[in-house]
Protein 1
Amino acid sequence: MCTRERTAMRNGVEHLEHALEAESTHQAVFGVKGRSALHGLTGFDVIDQDPVDYMHCVLLGVVRTLISFWFDSKYHIELWYIRVFV
């Protein structure tokens, strides 16, 4: 999501350019560390057609937050804190 004005969304061509530059310089370029194995698929655009990784993008953050709420002692006075019962 772009939050700054005049910030363009990443596109497949730019992404591939950044990936190739990152590979040649051994440095990440705008967060891109290199080409994906999916770059080799004919007619497949890594940026527009790559599915969201539900486990890492959604579940990992949600579950981590819930575990923190339930077990972190800084929430010991909250109703949802369950560490004392486990």
Protein 2
Amino acid sequence: MTEQWPRDARIRRTPQKSNSRNAKKLADDFQAIQNAEIHLCERRVWKAARMDNSKRRAALAHSIRKFFFAPKPRGAE
């Protein structure tokens, strides 16, 4: 029974590590999205004033997609 413990602990510990790494990555992504949102809100206040919520959300989603999945410039690879 005593030989079992280190292995159990290792099995238990490993996913937590990766989870925290994923959580950090998620938090960073979320922060980036929030920054993009703030930036867009600053840029598009006048436009957003004439939009209803669903349109505003669609515009925001579109610009976030454009921001994250923009094609890389040719020389970058």
Protein 3
Amino acid sequence: MSGSLHLPGASGDARSGNGSKSMRGGRPQGDALRRFGDAKKRMGDIFVDLEGYVAELVDSFVQLSADYDFVETSQVQEAQHNRNSITVIQTMLKRDHMKVVFFGRTSNGKSTVINAMLHSRVLPAGMGHTTSCFLQVEASPDDETFIMTENTKD
């Protein structure tokens, strides 16, 4: 059994119908998601700057290596590898969706962690409760909360 659970703004109390506040400290629902988005954007900006610096370093290494044989080939290759790694990270940061997988033994707190991240009790948790299925939790652009099961289109 698997399904999707869409939440308004990815946080908030889905059971109470409270459309503007979460269960924790009265913060607005989108606050956690907004902070994540802001942090993701800042990280992206940092990697854009970093890519520029590393690109400049690679160009300097190539020029110095060609003109004076001053820089070892291994250093040029390492700098180029770092530049490629930065490009891969930037590609990952540009994605709209990020996948996080929780796995572990029964009743070890996976659903509790997800509920804490969402600032809402959307998954069964506690003694005697078990999720026992694969779930996909996504933010919803509107204030509608719904559950999709495996063989449905709506």
Protein 4
Amino acid sequence: MWTADLSWRSAFGVIALLSAAGLAAAQEPAGQQGKPPEPAQARDASPPEGKPGAPPVATREDERLVPVSRFVLFYLNEHADQPSIDEFNALTVSLEKTDKGYERPGRGGTPVEVRIGDVFDAEAPMFSAAAIVRVGEAIVREFNRRGFIGIFVTPDPTEINEAGDDLREGRTALRLAVITGRIAELRTVGAGGRVKNEERFDHPMHDRIADKSPVQVGDLIRRDRLDRYLFRLNRHAGRRVDVATAPGGGQPDELALDFLIYEPKPWTLYAQVSNTGTEFTSDWRQRLGFTHNQLTGRDDVLRLDYLTSDFEDSHTFMVSYEFPLLNGRLRVRPFGTWQQYTASDVGLADEQFEGETWQLGIEAAYNVLHRRALFIDMVLGARWENTQVINSSIELRGEDDLFIPYLGARLERFTDRATTVASVTLEGNVSGFAGTDVEQLEKMGRPDVDEDWTVIKWDLEHAFYLEPVIFRKAWRENLPPPEGRLRARGQTLAHELALAFRGQQAMGNRLIPAAQTVLGGMYSVRGYEESLAAGDSSVFGSIEYRFHVPRALKINPSPGRKLFGEPFRVTPTAPYGVTDWDLVLKAFYDVGKVTQTDGIEAIGEKDQTLSSVGLGIQFDLKRNVRLRADWGFALQDAESGSRRTHSGDSRVHFEGTIFY
């Protein structure tokens, strides 16, 4: 907390700067590996001491008074983007009127609202230094509201000098200089594994970020434009960009604008094992993957994935390459897949067939709406599929081509307090274009299927922390902790609620097995066998409570620990802080239903409802290790051929992933 000193102009500068300070650094929502959180918003350089936003304490300087008949606002330096200075005369300031004059609130006087542009009585009432500082704060706040930062307000140095002496010689109007910071330097500062430490300043790989900045040298610092730019930059996985200002140039209004760019190494290898297989193949599935988030340094992403069941019965290869166009608003993604599967993988346990599918496709996603952290994209794509099935029980083979165009919308929003991801897609087969033969389709494991079909798919996931909801005032106002404590009540992000709702509507079509939807297992209704129930249409919902144990631990501002030679946060270092490890305790309820279109009871097709409750645990170590186990208890009977799950049965689902 800073105290007023004899330099009134210094006090004004500090208060103005503090009022314009940015928000606390953002934290990544749990469970969103690699997803961009809300960026820390454009902020001014921190003052040399004190806490942002802290009011001045009562000192003898509060007793120092000067007569003021009116405030006269003026710009120290003119700029074409400045709003009219007269617009700020209508602002009001909350003060108190005492026997001595106008004081800051809390001095025991009568509360009053003072309009900055008013002309006071001829006697020129006295204003304390703290009261005049409050006037400057109101001006700065209004500039901030309009999207400007780097704003300073100070008395005209020809009227009040550094020592606080009144030089007006009988005049009582007080001139307040408004200094609007303009950019004198535009710099980039890199961190992380992508650039070497000695090359972190203005690295050529970061030139695009500076060149495309919405504010350039000579411009005023517009927080609204910078925030929008930061949100868009931070949408790219593997990159975090913040902005800060610092003194720059030789003039009072000249500032340096720094883009602080954190990028770990651009590529990631991972290996995963889970018990998400079926008893007809193997209970264990393995997955290997590679992702490069800057393949050519233009925000282009290459993804390679391989999934298998003990490297024997089931194999899937996936590849995609995504690249931006139109300054990132349009992203194009060609992709391909080859898959070898069995009947149980698509929910047909007693069928004796194997399938093989390859597909090639392309997708374009165009951003149609961007409001801070909210992005909505329209998606248009198409894929060509070739599917063949060999039914060994009756020596039947079917092979056919499908052409599946799709149209949809995607929404995503990542903030400190909540994460929302949603999508809806309309897709279907165009048999006339692909040359699909219904006789071949019926050889793929299901009779009476449609050669032309349309389905609607949707997926909604929303997770939010409870503390900002329950302790709303502490979150919004960033309340200081009580004396002797490092955080106020509720200033953690330890309690989380996650909701999911997804499904498929077949719109009266009978689908081939590969196009049906399945329920049961780790990624849908836990407690049941994997892919136990299949249907043309489905609906699924889940609610899960998560408790992040280390985030509730006592704050240690200077943890001083290292892991593998790097700093390691065992406990939070600040209110709402996160740690470099996590232990998440969970409780969940899952429910889902599959329905058949014109179901044929003779071959076991029927509608089924699955529901379960359970407990889970998850351990994360930085971005390198994730171990997850969920223990689900089935609440309803369900079956598929010889596979059955009875009410009361339980199943432990496990997944372990190592990232490098």
